[in-house]
Amino acid sequence: MKRHSEPTDSDAAEESLSFQALIGLGTHSARKNYHSVLEGKLAELEAERNRYKWLFENALHGIFQADFDGVVRAANPAFASICGFQDSQQVLEKLDSLKFLFAHPEEYERLTNKLLAEGKVFRYLATLKRCDDTLIYVSMNAILKHEAGSDIFEAFVLDVSAFKQAQDELERLNEELEGRVESRTQELTASNEKLIQEIAERERIQEQLRVAKEAAEQATLSKDKYLAAASHDLLQPMNAARLLVSALRERMQESEESYLVERIHMALEGAEELLNDLLYISKLDQDAVQPRLEVFSIQQLLAGLEGEFNAQAKSLGLQLHVLPSRLSVQSDARLLGRILRNFISNALRYTHKGRVLVGYRRRGENLSIQVWDTGEGVPHDRLHDIFQEFRQLNRQQRGVRKGVGLGLAIVDRLARMLDHPIEVNSWPNRGSMFAVEVPLAESAATGSSKIQPALPINSLEGACILVLDNDDNILISMEVLLKQWGCVVYLARDQYEAIELCKAESLRPDVILADYQLDDNQTGTDAVLAMRKCAGEEIPAVIITADYSDEGSQLFKTLGLPMLNKPLKPAKLRALLSHLL
């Protein structure tokens, strides 16, 4: 007889059936419905386990799991490396208790107590002792877990030794800095007291400097005025001497004394060039030269230069040829003319035989004005030196005066002021080429005149010239020179004498040559206007002046009066008179 407590066969069958149904292994139909779902869940669990294992093994932070007795249950390679072990297995085998890993046992106790009380710990700083007994500083994040009825904790460990060392070093530096600041504060306090005294002394010195500066500025102003007045007074007798020597040269070309006259002429030219260059350098230093850009015909500029240098070229047995051009450029005609004048003058000075050619090359929107010569040339290693002040090549000159070494220095400064590039090419013993590049004008210059044919040598024969100047030596010199050219000459010291001549002798001069600075605050421009009013016609006139200022040049240009600077160059005067007549 079966016991009451023993299950019957039917009870066993029902229990078996209920368990199989519970896990999805009941009837064939039930197994068919839940088997695939169970396999999928198992696969997901396996994938998640493998992912967690991969993250655990490859994490950059150290990770370990331990119980509260200090037994390490698991550790990743990063934690093993932090503690100085070769791998995770060595941590489990050699680390008897996590307590021994902490350099200070109280740190481990504080960690575990806080975990039990709060369940988690973040950024817990501790000092660990590696297996080689070196100390490191770490930061831990730990969390409390319950597994299999016991408490364990997991921790993430980051080695912050470098940060801790930097922090300690910063604290040390701060302490040093505080000490230095205190010491420096004491020094600064003493220095401030000394500085107050120095400031008072400096203010006194600055006041003295201000007074001295005002005195220096006043002295400079007086010097400029004196230089202007002295240059005018010096140029007056030099101008008279040049005119007289020019007349003598023409009269005594075949005489035995012509050599002496020629030497006097060369000496005066050298003195004139030195004086003019020194005055111009002084103006450049004082920023007294300001460019005035305008559109003008390049032919008008070079025609005047050709007439100015033709006589000199012939006297040296050279050919001066200026190519014609109908192009217009935008520049300052006066400053550009000085640049080209220097190029042509140097070419004639350093050329023994052959010719000097002035030509052009178009370069995009610019025009390169080039002066070629067949002279001695310049060594390549000296090309830059020739643009320095008072730098001059030592050359044997065949009776031609030497320069003073300021011309090309002035050219360089004017070219930079105008933003006109300078180009130099030279072939020793074959010749040189100096060029300046000028912007082309978009339209032709208004009033550009056609190229005029050269006038015959006797074109001044019988011309009536009225000369106004307050210097008797200038009047005598001009009379001698002009009469030698075949002119009929009348002389006057001021506009009143000129008007009296006009009324008494019914004088109608062909050209008036007037000095700008006359006596009693009269000016040559006033005299010209008075003579024109008296004559009732626009008599051609030329202003001759030692005033090199931009204001004077602009005034003469506004009045439509051509200007010649003192000392007067006879060849330039003759060319201008021929042009006006």
From TrEMBL:
GO terms, biological process: regulation of DNA-templated transcription
Transmembrane stretches, start-end: none
SMART domains associated with the record: HATPase_c (SM00387), HisKA (SM00388), REC (SM00448)
Coiled-coil region(s): 160-258
Keyword Kinase: yes
A Pfam cross-reference name: PAS
Keywords, in A-Z order: Coiled coil, Kinase, Phosphoprotein, Transferase
Domain annotation Histidine kinase: ranges: 229-442
InterPro entries: CheY-like_superfamily, HATPase_C_sf, HATPase_dom, His_kinase_dom, HisK_dim/P_dom, HisK_dim/P_sf, PAS, PAS-like_dom_sf
Domain Response regulatory: start-end pairs: 464-581
Modified residues (4-aspartylphosphate): D515
Stretches assigned to the PAS domain: 48-115
Gene Ontology molecular function: histidine phosphotransfer kinase activity; phosphorelay sensor kinase activity
Catalytic activities: ATP + protein L-histidine = ADP + protein N-phospho-L-histidine
E.C. number: 2.7.13.3
Identification of the protein by name: histidine kinase
